[in-house]
Sequence to fold (208 residues):
Amino acid sequence: MDPSGDTLPASACTALQALSRLKEGNARFVRGEARFPTVQKEVLAQLAKRQEPFATILGCSDSRVPPELIFDAGFGELFVIRVAGNVLGDAIFGTLQYAGRHLHTPLFVVLGHEGCGAVSAAVDLKLRGVRLESRIEVLLENILPALDGIDTQQPGEAMLQAAVEANVRRTVREILQTPEAKIREAARDVMLVGAVYEMKSGRVRFLD
Fold:
């Protein structure tokens, strides 16, 4: 069996095998060896019956960070939730719960990215009082608490990088506090990890 888990049906993947598949796919993407196969009608017909993704990704809406491409994943392999700043909210929590309860994905990933506009706007709001449209500021309120511990004396780019990582870590912590996550974590049948996509290199850096 391939240690990456690629030979396994998605429903049979463990969390570690799912994480290995993401890392292998991102490595192919970075090397310029992504597969991007044409999906045959037989595959589409099978997917029309049911979905069995091996991982759930909560990522940013940024058009430059499509999870299926950067992980070199095929149709039906990833259950993707995208929202600016990869923040949480009632609808996002509901979607995560659906992924856990009904799709049984063993791996959940909170995926931030370098140069995130939402995080940058939250930094500007916190440090410089830069105001934006009211609905955007509601979004930014979900990011502001993550910025409390960052060093505001860092150069701008380094501070933004620290803020992006802090935002990912806070989202992971919030998910871990939900009853569903505590139950599945105790049963050791699920893994939740944070990661940051590096825009220039294409590499996904998984956080400790």
Remarks:
- Strands lie at 55-59, 78-82, 107-113, 191-197, 204-206.
